[in-house]
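Ticket #213: bound-state structure for S-adenosyl-L-homocysteine.
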Amino acid sequence: MTSKRTRDRLVERLLEQGVTSQFVLELIANTPRHLFLDEALSHRAYEDASLPIGFGQTLSQPYIVARMTEILLGAAGDPKRVLEIGTGSGYQTCILAQAVEHVWSVERIKPLQDKAKQRLRHLGLNNVTYKHADGGFGWPEQGPFDAILSAAAPRDIPKSLLQQLAPNGVLVIPVGADEQVLTLVIRDGEEDKFITQKLEPVKFVPLLSGVTR
Ligand code: SAH
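RESOLUTION: The complex was predicted; output attached.
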């Protein structure tokens, strides 16, 4: 189930769906997604599906992780400092941590983040700093960021996330309630304005306020 063939099949599917970055496809092929699931579900790890991780949350679908990473890396050039909202299982965090210099990851459900932290340490990824907090406020003390990725959907883009973008920084975020759109915002460095592009319909868990212990 975790064989090279199974993973190659997943990569082929992502290619068919239009993911073009060879770098991102290789990251997906080389990242052990089964380690981010409970054992009972790990046999489904290389299906292109979102899967439950407890607390009513889901491990994002590989397609969406690949797409968001590709968009983020493509739009931001060579991002070094990246903020992630919604650590969840840590799978997207793991992909980002292999692609950029440092990731700051915020999660509102403590037990999920604790597990994610353990998994990434186990995989030898030490370039991630975690915070148990409401990520709707970003992480002002650590900003500005070259890129911000949100794995949870707000109804409207939080102003604090925009404010924490560096000049030419990019935000990749699902936006909306019943109907959500994956959205890319680029902070124009010269005129200090925000350029927004709506990319494709998506389905994410909502960005909730407050924290759970
Ligand atoms: N990329 C993650 C996705 C997890 S689902 C993975 O593949 O596992 C989205 C996560 O966002 C959930 O864990 C949820 O608890 C978290 N979340 C929702 N609202 C949040 C908020 N305001 N601040 C931080 N995390 C939030």
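RESOLUTION NOTES: The chain has one domain: 4-202.
TICKET STATUS: resolved
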